[in-house]
Amino acid sequence: MIDVLVAGGGPAGLATAIHATLAGMEAVVVEPRLAPVDKACGEGLMPSGVAALRALGVRPPGRALRGISYLDGRHRAQAAFRDGPGLGVRRTELHAALSARAAELGVKVLPGRVEDVRQDGEEVRAAGLRARWLVAADGLHSPVRAMLGLGLPDPGPRRYGLRRHYRVAPWSDFVEVHWAADGEAYVTPVGDELVGVAVLSSRRRGYAEHLADFPALLERLGGRAVTPVRGAGPLRQRVRARVAGRVLLVGDAAGYVDALTGEGVSLALTSARVLVGCLRAGAPQSYEGAWLRLSRRHRLLTGALVSARRHRAVPRLVVPAAQRLPAVFGAVVHALA
User: Fold this and answer.
1) Lowest-pLDDT range of 105-119, 180-194, 221-235, 316-330
2) Please, which contacts does 317-324 make with residues 24 or more away whose CB atoms are closer than 8 Å?
3) For residue 146, what is the enclosing H or E element?
4) 188 vs 260: CA distance, rounded Å
5) What b-and-e string marks burial along 112-122, b requiring 16 or more CB atoms within 10 Å of the CB?
6) Do 227 and 168 form a contact (C-beta atoms < 8 A)?
7) What does residue 132 show for φ and ψ, rounded to 5 degrees?
8) Please, are residues 142 and 111 in contact by the beta-carbon 8 Å criterion?
9) What angle do CA 207, 213, 214 make, to 5 degrees?
10) Residue 313 has pLDDT above 80, yes or no
11) Cβ distance 188 to 43 under 8 Å?
12) Given a cut of 90, is residue 325 above it in pLDDT?
């Protein structure tokens, strides 16, 4: 019988499988798509995410990131990471590097989907396989989470993300977060001649319409788009619990607040390590509390910013406040990093 069956072969699923294999467990991944898979993503890893990749033996190519800048057209606030650089990395490069590491360790990746889950006190049966544990790493709109009734309704405004890349030399080694009345634009250097630009908003508009809210950024990009627009949303996903019998949730499937502070992939990678540690210790139920502790700062800070953004005056105040209180802004960036 397999030790750990993983539903989903994205970064969270592959990280879980790699950690399980390094811990002496047999891990099998079920994934319908061939790697590497591209998807809407800010593509900026916090220093904690870079450290998590190194612990897996994974070093994808990318651009070192020194910190985060907030801009609104008139003001700028900037804070450097205190514990080493982050990394701007194409989602496809990250996925390819994780896939190569998993293959090197002998992790099996089988084509297919987990469409039915049955479990008892001894095992889980899914995708025609038997395993001691099933880890759902099947994304923002996790089918496994839905099957088990672990999702919760979200009464708040829905936010969505769109991303594409531009062939232009990065003009900063900071992730830039441009603020406007109806959303944010994130600029992440991911190569020597490539930047990713993601826009987040609760307004359902086309990418070009969103980008028009940032005229200075639009002029700098010069219309040199080289990839299609990819989207994701609604972003916020509320989850009742991350453990249901012998099934555990990781990555976006475990719950998601918003992409505003850019911690999604980093949190997924560190959560995968914690999850496997709980299984190895024979204490899977402890994963729920461990996940809540691990994600607490992210949930509180990101949730507060998203809630505050609902008030029309807030976008005009965020960057000036961060500029006037650099120590506070630096402390927030450090906490998130």
Assistant:
1) 316-330
2) 318/70, 318/72, 318/179, 319/70, 319/71, 319/72, 319/75, 319/76, 319/77, 319/179, 320/72, 320/75, 322/70, 322/77, 323/70, 323/75, 323/76, 323/77
3) helix 143-147
4) 13
5) eebeebebeee
6) no
7) -70, -35
8) no
9) 100
10) no
11) yes
12) no
Q: What are the tokens at 146?
A: 């839905």
Check: CB of residue 95 under 8 Å from CB of residue 13.
Answer: no
Integer-rounded Cα Rg, in Å, for the chain is: 20
CA atoms of 187 and 170, how far apart (whole Å): 9
266-269 contacts, C-beta under 8 A, 24 or more apart = 266/45, 266/46, 266/48, 266/49, 266/52, 267/294, 267/295, 267/298, 268/11, 268/12, 268/15, 268/137, 269/11, 269/12, 269/15, 269/49, 269/52, 269/53, 269/56
pTM: 0.94
* Amino acid at position 327, single letter: A
Structure-block tokens of residue 79 = 């804070």
Residue type, 212: A
Q: Minimal CA–CA distance to 185: which of 157, 164, 156?
A: 164
